[in-house]
């Protein structure tokens, strides 16, 4: 990161407290335990194709931090749902876009780049024959996702290209989607 020096760094850029981010970077660089996070959600079926996911806390550096959010999920009518909420595939893409948006805003802020606009459009195709179990030759999910980043502000094209490369290199959800994540399933029948 080509972070600015304390002398030329404003307190906030793009609404991000640059000093706080740099303090976190310094703390984690000095003690890797301070950078360890644990994320957890609990999802409960609500009937039909609806589910509700509760976010209650996460851990940062071994310290539990309370949170209170609910994420509701459904499917379109055509897929047996009530069309009340976004579906899991849309949340997956939203999670990717949201994570990268944080990355663009933070990378720009740390470089002193003012953002005027930022938009990420992501799309992908799923062949329902895989999901419906109609063909073992068809995967049940995305083979690829395509996304376009539209960004503008007081930086050059080369500076935005550096930010773009940094986001790709450091975004947790870009990594999680671009690379296989080992899943450790446990089934408890009650």
In short:
This protein has 190 residues and is of the alpha+beta class.
For this entry, give a set of tags.
190 residues; alpha+beta; GMP Synthetase, Chain A, domain 3; 2 domains; four-stranded antiparallel beta sheet; two-stranded antiparallel sheet; 28% strand; globular; disordered N terminus
Rg, Å, rounded: 20 Å
Percentage of residues in helical conformation: 25-40%
Proportion of strand residues: 25-35%
- C-alpha geometry: globular
> What does the largest sheet look like?
4 strands, antiparallel
CATH topology of the largest domain: GMP Synthetase, Chain A, domain 3
What separation lies between the terminal Cα atoms? Answer: 50 Å
Name the helix and strand elements from N-terminus to C-terminus, one letter apiece. EEHEEEEHEHEHH
Structural class: alpha+beta
CATH homologous superfamily heading of the largest domain = K homology (KH) domain
From the coordinates shown, what is the CATH architecture of the largest domain? 2-Layer Sandwich
How many β-strands, per DSSP?
A: 8
Count the domains: 2
CATH class of the largest domain: Alpha Beta
Q: Helical stretch count?
A: 5
Uncertain regions spanning at least 5 consecutive residues? 1-7
- Average per-residue pLDDT, rounded, comes to 94
